[in-house]
Inverse folding.
């Protein structure tokens, strides 16, 4: 019998999922396991974890089919997604200014996700990984949704803007170049930002 899984090591513990590193049929792989929430009724907890695991795997597969650099899904079980391990560094871990190529890639990747009607839901430096050869991968589809909602796409852009700060301009330029509905999403982003500023101002004046 082939020993499919050798050693297994926990590499990260998120809010909802634990990440393990192991080997599956000789391929280094990452297992994202959605943890049990003891404070929740068991049936509901299982239904939600099952739903999230499936939707995460589904979004990754759709993205991969569209040629977007995401880890390939190797196996899906009830609460776990087994995926290709990407050997790289998360963008938020890099010191100093980000390479221009990484900024451009981030805009292009987001445009391609949106062209496939996928809103990522957490498109930040904490979910973008750069390999040694400079190529960029997007991970963590835990909050992703299959949708054509302009608002959800604009929220992805807003998160990226907040995450990149001054460096957002380079990513945005590339987003506009590749996104089919780029100008509509951008108008929505401006609208959301204006709404936010208005609400902040109203709150400050109300306090005064
Ligand atoms: N395919 C992968 N290859 C290499 N490292 C990975 C991979 N997937 C996840 N990781 C590592 O595990 C960390 C957490 O993964 P991920 O972002 O998917 O989970 P999370 O943020 O805890 O999830 P959630 O927000 O859904 O609870 C990443 O920051 C990264 O360091
Ligand atoms: Mg994450």
């Amino acid at each position: 019998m082939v020993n499919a899984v050798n050693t297994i090591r926990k590499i990260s513990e998120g809010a909802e999922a634990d990440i393990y590193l192991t080997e599956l049929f000789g391929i280094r792989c990452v297992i994202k396991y959605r943890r049990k929430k003891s404070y929740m009724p068991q049936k509901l907890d299982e239904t939600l974890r099952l739903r999230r695991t499936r939707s995460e795997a589904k979004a990754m597969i759709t993205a991969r089919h569209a040629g977007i650099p995401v880890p390939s899904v190797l196996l899906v079980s009830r609460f776990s997604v087994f995926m290709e391990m990407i050997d790289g560094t998360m963008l938020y871990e890099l010191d100093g200014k980000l390479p221009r190529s990484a900024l451009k890639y981030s805009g292009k990747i987001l445009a391609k996700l949106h062209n496939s009607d996928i809103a990522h839901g957490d498109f930040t430096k904490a979910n973008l990984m750069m390999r040694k050869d400079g190529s960029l991968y997007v991970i963590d589809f835990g909050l992703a949704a299959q949708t054509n909602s302009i608002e959800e796409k604009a929220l992805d852009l807003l998160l990226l803007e907040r995450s990149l700060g001054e460096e957002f301009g380079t990513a945005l330029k590339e987003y506009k170049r590749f996104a089919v509905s780029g100008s509509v999403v951008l108008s929505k982003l401006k609208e959301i930002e204006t709404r936010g500023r208005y609400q902040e101002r109203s709150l400050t004046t109300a306090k005064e």
